């Protein structure tokens, strides 16, 4: 197994709960299995995954990539596991002569997957302007970040969006910013604005409280909770209607795929998004979304957040859709 490091600058710095991000650093992972090369990507994001140093250490300790995936050996280093598992899946699907999404189980050709636009914090006018742009670009759904200002200000932003975009699916993502009483107060207003989904309204470990927020006219989606608590705990607590699956934070597209399958058995839907990954991981996330029938619009239009990239193998969103690579494996090896 061969690894080499990369740094990808962001188009503009991103403020997150875990701090300011200006650069995405990670590792390209290259394996050879029975003579077939496979390439993966490990791009850790502390707060969601292990650190860069821990990722590098874990990758450096792998001697046999396929057996390294067995028995949860890389379970505490999800980005490293993502890189190794993707390289192995890439090699195997390439050897099988199939695009990754077909290898993951989809039995029909899928040309493209629907994606949502993401709108960060801003004034009511700026938020509504960004929403209008997204609708003009024909995104079928928009996700608005909330929680950086008080609930009244956020509701004013969403009222401005709905007034100018009467038909678009609106989701909001609070990244755990609210307490239960704030969420209880806000939910009826969100329902009145026909907001479809509220993502991670409460802190990640508050599964029972999330369960109490369901069935109020707005679906409850969990993101941070899924990474922190796991799908078993989320299902046991009946804490969500929808899971937001970040393959890099969950340990790989194989893990994310089986998690979506498990959740669906319990009536919980799943969708796919990224942690602002390079194009090797983004392509894999597109394949993952394409591998699942009836997938909702996913958070995969994140390539524009990077000022540089690993390959040009993933196209930008066009009319709210991203094309699914149709060659063998994930993307052509380089
Ligand atoms: Mg989220």
From TrEMBL:
This is o-succinylbenzoate synthase. Keywords: Lyase, Magnesium, Menaquinone biosynthesis, Metal-binding. Mg(2+) binds at residues 173, 199, 223. It is an enzyme of class 4 (lyase). Pathway: Quinol/quinone metabolism; 1,4-dihydroxy-2-naphthoate biosynthesis; 1,4-dihydroxy-2-naphthoate from chorismate: step 4/7; Quinol/quinone metabolism; menaquinone biosynthesis. It comes from the Archaea. The gene is menC. Gene3D superfamilies: Enolase-like C-terminal domain, Enolase-like, N-terminal domain. Belongs to the mandelate racemase/muconate lactonizing enzyme family. MenC type 1 subfamily. PROSITE patterns: MR_MLE_2. The lineage of its organism: Archaea, Methanobacteriati, Methanobacteriota, Stenosarchaea group, Halobacteria. The keyword Cell membrane does not apply. The active site is at 145 (proton donor), 246 (proton acceptor). GO terms for biological process: amino acid catabolic process; menaquinone biosynthetic process. Its EC number is 4.2.1.113. InterPro entries: Enolase-like_C_sf, Enolase-like_N, Enolase_C-like, Mandel_Rmase/mucon_lact_enz_CS, Mandelate_racemase_C, OSB_synthase_MenC1. Converts 2-succinyl-6-hydroxy-2,4-cyclohexadiene-1-carboxylate (SHCHC) to 2-succinylbenzoate (OSB).
């Amino acid at each position: 197994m061969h690894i080499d490091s990369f740094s990808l600058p962001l188009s503009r710095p991103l403020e997150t709960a875990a701090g300011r991000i200006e650069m995405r650093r990670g590792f390209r992972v290259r394996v050879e299995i029975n003579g077939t090369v496979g390439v993966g990507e490990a791009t850790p994001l502390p707060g969601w995954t292990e650190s860069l140093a821990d990722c590098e250490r874990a990758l450096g300790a792998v001697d046999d990539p396929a057996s390294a995936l067995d028995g949860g050996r890389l379970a505490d280093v999800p980005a490293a596991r993502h890189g190794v598992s993707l390289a192995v899946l890439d090699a195997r699907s390439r050897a099988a002569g199939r695009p990754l999404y077909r290898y993951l189980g989809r039995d029909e050709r899928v040309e493209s997957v629907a994606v949502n636009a993401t709108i960060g914090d801003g004034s009511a006018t700026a938020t509504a302007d960004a929403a209008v742009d997204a609708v003009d670009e024909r995104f079928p759904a928009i996700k608005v970040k909330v929680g950086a200002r008080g609930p009244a200000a956020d509701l004013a932003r969403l009222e401005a969006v709905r007034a100018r975009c009467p038909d678009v699916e609106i989701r909001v993502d609070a990244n755990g910013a609210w307490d239960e009483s704030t969420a209880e107060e806000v939910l009826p207003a969100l329902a009145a604005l026909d907001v479809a989904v509220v993502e991670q309204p409460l802190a990640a470990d508050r599964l029972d409280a999330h369960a109490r927020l369901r069935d109020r006219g707005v679906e409850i989606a969990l993101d941070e909770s899924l990474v922190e608590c796991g799908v078993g705990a989320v299902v046991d607590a009946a804490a969500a209607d929808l899971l937001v699956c970040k393959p890099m934070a969950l340990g790989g597209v194989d893990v994310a795929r089986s998690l979506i399958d498990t959740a669906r058995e319990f009536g919980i839907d799943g969708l796919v998004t990224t942690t602002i990954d390079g194009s090797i991981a983004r392509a894999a996330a597109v394949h993952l979304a394409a591998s699942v029938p009836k997938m909702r619009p996913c958070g995969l239009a994140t390539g524009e957040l990077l000022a540089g990239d690993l390959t040009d193998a993933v196209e930008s969103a066009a009319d709210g859709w991203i094309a699914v690579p149709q060659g063998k494996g994930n993307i052509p090896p380089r």
